[in-house]
Amino acid sequence: MTAATHSTLFPQVPESADAVLDGLDPEQRAVATALHGPVCVLAGAGTGKTRAITHRIAYGVRAGILQPNTVLAVTFTNRAAGEMRGRLRQLGAGGVQARTFHSAALRQLQFFWPKAVGGDLPRIVDRKIQLVADAAAASRLRLDRGELRDVTAEIEWSKVTQTVPGDYAAAAHKAARETPRHPAEIAQIYSDYETLKRDRGVIDFEDVLLLTVGVLQDRQDIAEQVRAQYQHFVVDEYQDVSPLQQRLLDLWLGDRDSLCVVGDASQTIYSFTGATPDHLLNFRTRHPSATVVKLVRDYRSTPQVVHLANGVLARARGRAAEHRLELISQREAGPEPVYVEYADEPTEAEGAARRIRELIASGVTAGEIAILFRTNGQSEIYEQALADAGVPYQLRGAERFFERPEVRKAGHSLRAAARFGGNDAGLDEAVDLPSQVRAVLSGEGWTTQPPAGSGAVRERWESLAALARLAEDFARANPAATLADLVTELDERANAQHAPTVDGVTLASLHAAKGLEWDAVFLVGVAEGMMPISYAKTDEQVEEERRLLYVGVTRARRHLGISWALSRSPGGRPNRRASRFLDGLRPGSTGPAGRGAGGGTGGVEHGTRPDDAVWEPPAGARRRGDRKVARCRVCGHTLDAAEMKLMRCEDCPSDMDEGLYDRLIEWRARTAATLGQPAFCVFTDKTLIAIAEASPDDERELSRIPGVGRRKFRTYGSDVLALCAGQMVGDETDEGAGGA
């Protein structure tokens, strides 16, 4: 969740230009009023950079200094561009263009292509990877799925760094890239890939930037036309620009200096895509007259979280570290970050899920909690643990909200109801806007209770439920609003990609979490080999991993949990250790905390826990007892974490009692309906399979089955054992009595 959605949902438009400046701190106000010449904003995490630059644009527009249609604000994701457009609209500067580099370039390319080249712009390929596969085949090289993905990434890196096929090998060596195949082979595939594109008359995503650069370089008349249109530029996340994006920006600017850039070198985490902080760090050199403003007041995180974030960077090295910003928290004190060492990964996942249940019980909403990990492959075990604990969750990085089929279809139905609702008998009993929306969504399959299970059906329900909640929020903010007003709001949000929030714990990689924030964050798997990742070999790569951890820490507003596991699987060799980045910061660790990490109010080194930390290391953390390797009960093969539920390999034959499994499924459905919960919150399918295979005779055998756990054993244990013994429980018993 972003700061925008954490504040008032529908704020009033400021009455005047001066009112736009209300509520800004002195540094943010300095940014907002610096409307001439080059401006560089060095903004630490949580310091309100988006607030500062959107108020800067809005103040310039409202004061008549900037014409809205001559301003181009550029960022890196559609979500960020959508949020910026939404904020500008709320500030009364709705005519400003806020786009990604690619979106802005594509718009210009489509407009000028007939004039510059003739004909229609070539089709942009949807799936580049298939073209790369064809190029590899043309080169007589066979790539497996992983190599195909990695070679595609190498081609993308080459293009954004303006590296041609003939120079790839030397450029990759200079950049110390770990190439998936021999550099000469990749260069050959890259060359054949470019040939195939030309032969098929298509272009790719990177070509959009390359071709726009080419047109602006070759056609001075077109370049002047673009510069006449856009006279003032704002670039967000400037530490992430690639050489190609910087070249395009230079061509947009020409010989002018009406440019404002915003960034933080300590949040440079995308160098593998060609991003470099050099342009940010060299800005004052390129623009000696630039105004430089540093934002260091952190409004997001407590002093304890900020203290740890400063400590993570305190031992950083390299040029980016020399320009690090020392954050100063503006919030009241909160709980200390909590560090937990676990015996194995399944126990770590269960511990996180247990802690999340405690937070939700204490009043923290599920949508304000996130679990962040280094790689997407770590997601599954946390999905399972949350499902077992009955905690709703959402995966970050899914399809954009307003492009989901069910959302688009619901939008059409709401629009039709707004136009012809007087003839719709289904709306006759709807007394207010929220009930009207619920009536329309009911026709799309929405129900007051979520469906049992997970997957596509649950995701579809969550989308419709988010629209229902948005209608309630909109009606509270605008009591006189009609269905037509809501449809207009949805259209504006769709154009701005300003999606409503989903009330579920977020699961995301650290890279995907950039730009987001939550009340509670769990950083999991923070161990050597994962943080830093094992293939980070050079000093530059290790320092980027340190910055990635810094980004993770600064996502938390109040509660922060950091954990790692000694082994991958239960009973495995405990040969892992906590990340070196935590040395001198976590309680009991050795090593200097580094410059600037001491003092403050966090006291992380001492490991104290205020009363409101409400988290003691859970039972099972750092167990060093049983050292047996977990083995398949069918073939004896060592099990990985995902196979622990069944205590057998996925492809080994099952000895499941089919009749017992059917009875368990029926019992679970009745129990879930009674509780008003999805079925998986009672037991997951995999846990029911494990029970049906083990057919436990007593409490001891049932409690040992992975996925049961103490809470579920206490709640459901007697019913499950009765079913295993062939007895009837619940409604079955009543039905049997009634039929006697």
UniProtKB/TrEMBL annotation:
Residues 303-558 form the UvrD-like helicase C-terminal domain. ATP binds at A43, G44, A45, G46, T47, G48, K49, T50. Its EC number is 5.6.2.4. Residues 591-605 have a biased composition (Gly residues). It catalyses: Couples ATP hydrolysis with the unwinding of duplex DNA by translocating in the 3'-5' direction; ATP + H2O = ADP + phosphate + H(+). Residues 22-302 form the UvrD-like helicase ATP-binding domain. The keyword Isomerase applies. Signal peptide: none annotated. Transmembrane segments: none annotated. Its cofactor is Mg(2+). It holds the Pfam family UvrD-helicase. PROSITE patterns: HRDC, UVRD_HELICASE_ATP_BIND, UVRD_HELICASE_CTER. GO terms for biological process: recombinational repair. The keyword DNA-binding applies. Residues 654-734 form the HRDC domain. GO terms for cellular component: cytosol; DNA helicase complex. Residues 569-622 are annotated as: Disordered. Keywords: ATP-binding, DNA damage, DNA repair, DNA-binding, Helicase, Hydrolase, Isomerase, Nucleotide-binding. Belongs to the helicase family. UvrD subfamily. This is ATP-dependent DNA helicase UvrD2. It comes from Streptomyces tabacisoli.
